[in-house]
Design a protein that fits this description.
It contains 6 helices and 11 strands. The chain has helices at 10-24, 26-38, 40-61, 68-85, 93-98, 235-242; strands spanning 106-113, 116-126, 132-134, 140-144, 158-159, 169-171, 176-182, 197-201, 212-215, 227-228, 247-248. A 4-stranded antiparallel sheet has the order 1-2-7-10. Helix 3 packs parallel to helix 4.
Length: 250
């Protein structure tokens, strides 16, 4: 008797094997999908990126609660603006003329000049990151008693006459300009008449609330017509300017 063997077609065998593998390996596929969708890797990446973006842009924009892409976008914008503000344009006189100084970006001081106890150096320092301009040629200064209720009779110094040209004095970032006040330019060597305070407003356009008050040397002589020079880049030039003061200041 002849025995006939049944032959399974190759295509059916292949399909059967594929179904068997799918049935046995379903759990393995789910486990592999877990890390890619569960957020372990993206979470690590986000945690790594956030300090970088927060350090460069978070403080400037005032927050770091947005998405990583939004934070990076803010940081980039801030960096670009910072470059423009701190570039070559911000170190020119023309930039300073167009960007007048704000009172809160200036540090104002006044101290006795070591070589002459009747002369005081008024200093104005730009604490900002770009140049700015003072709209007046000299600070507004008056002398009076620190305990006086009425300051309308305070003494105003003489200033140089013949002023003209651009009204702004450029002050570069981190730099200081000076004006010198001489309370006894004629060497009278008398009494100070109860005057013991120098009041300084760095720019005449600032409100009176931005006036700074400085004590005077107890041994200083104050005459009716003290002298004040123009803003200059050095103390020696400020002294020379003070000596030319010849007209009433405001």
């Amino acid at each position: 008797m002849t025995v006939r063997r049944r032959t399974i077609p190759l295509a059916l065998a292949t399909v059967g094997a594929a179904l068997a593998l799918a049935a046995c390996g379903g759990g393995s596929d789910d486990a592999a999908a877990g890390p890619s969708s569960g957020g372990a890797s993206p979470g690590t990446a986000t945690a790594t990126a956030t300090p970088g973006s927060g350090g460069s842009g978070g403080a400037k924009t005032g927050g770091g609660g947005g998405s990583s892409s939004a934070s990076n976008s803010s940081g980039t914008t801030g960096g670009t603006a910072g470059t423009k503000t701190g570039g070559k344009d911000a170190t020119s006189d023309s930039y300073a003329y167009k960007h007048l100084c704000a009172a809160d970006q200036l540090a104002v001081g006044a101290k006795e000049l070591g070589s002459n106890p009747d002369q005081y150096v008024i200093s104005v320092t730009n604490r900002g990151k770009a140049a700015c301009g003072l709209s007046s040629y000299y600070p507004r200064v008056d002398l009076g008693s620190k305990n006086a209720a009425d300051r309308s009779h305070n003494i105003h110094p003489l200033v140089p006459s013949g002023l003209g040209g651009a009204p702004a004095m450029p002050v570069y970032a981190g730099r200081t300009v000076y004006a010198v006040l001489d309370v006894d330019p004629n060497g009278a060597k008398g009494s100070n008449g109860g005057i013991d305070e120098i009041n300084v407003l760095a720019d005449t356009r600032f409100p009176n609330a931005d006036t700074h008050n400085f004590p005077m040397n107890e041994g200083a002589t104050v005459v009716q017509h003290p002298k004040l020079g123009l803003y200059r880049d050095s103390i020696s030039d400020a002294v020379s300017s003070m000596r030319t003061a010849d007209t009433n200041g405001s």
